[in-house]
Amino acid sequence: MTYCLGIITRYGLIMAADSRTNAGVDYVSTAQKLFDLSQPGERVLLVCTAGNLSMTQNVLTLIRRDRKSAVKGNINELTTMYDIANYFGNKTRQVIEQHQDWLQKDNISANCSFLVGGQIKGELPELYMVYSQGNFLRATRDSPFLQIGEIKYGKPILDRIINYEETSLDSAAECALLSLDSTMKSNISVGPPINMAMYETDTFKLGYRLKLERGDPYLLKLRKSWETSLRQAFKKLPRPDWQGNDDQAQDNHLVMTDILP
Fold it and tell me: Does the predicted TM-score (pTM) go above 0.85?
């Protein structure tokens, strides 16, 4: 399994991914899932991948090959992030259609998905999720983050913290790391190294990158601080109001006494 997420605010974009891959409990490895396909000064393009590793590698290989060979309509020529998301969708369908029948013979899923985020000159930053079927979904001001892979453990903190207008990029980065850490805590199929990139709106260069290995001092400090803060907050929660239930409990006791031998 895997876990990748993208967060977009008016200040820019955060993309982050774990690196664990597995084909069963006896074959666990690591693979990069966050990629930079930018043209500094012209466009920033970040991609996260999830699902069948061979499928995502094939899609990225075709996209890079088209760009290197200057094939008409490659990602360097497209003028909107919408067009780039559509381009990823078409390449995904192409790869899956080529291999799906053969994979199904051995009950292997060909499903894969992508987070595609960035900014092209003349356009605002955008973030998309591209599905195996080739269709895609765009992040909005009301829903300013997207996730792929094992999403459920890391979603609650994103729901409570991320706000398009108010959340700074530093806060979004911290939130992304806590979301990943929560997922790693609850699901062993997600694991380090963690790769993360930060892009500031209208800079058209990727100035901030981070790679956190297992046992990284900052990651351990962040985890410990978060766990301590949660425990302290939990201790301050208001207690349940049990008032008014004593009479009911007594009535229940009398009823049980009446029917017992």
Answer: yes
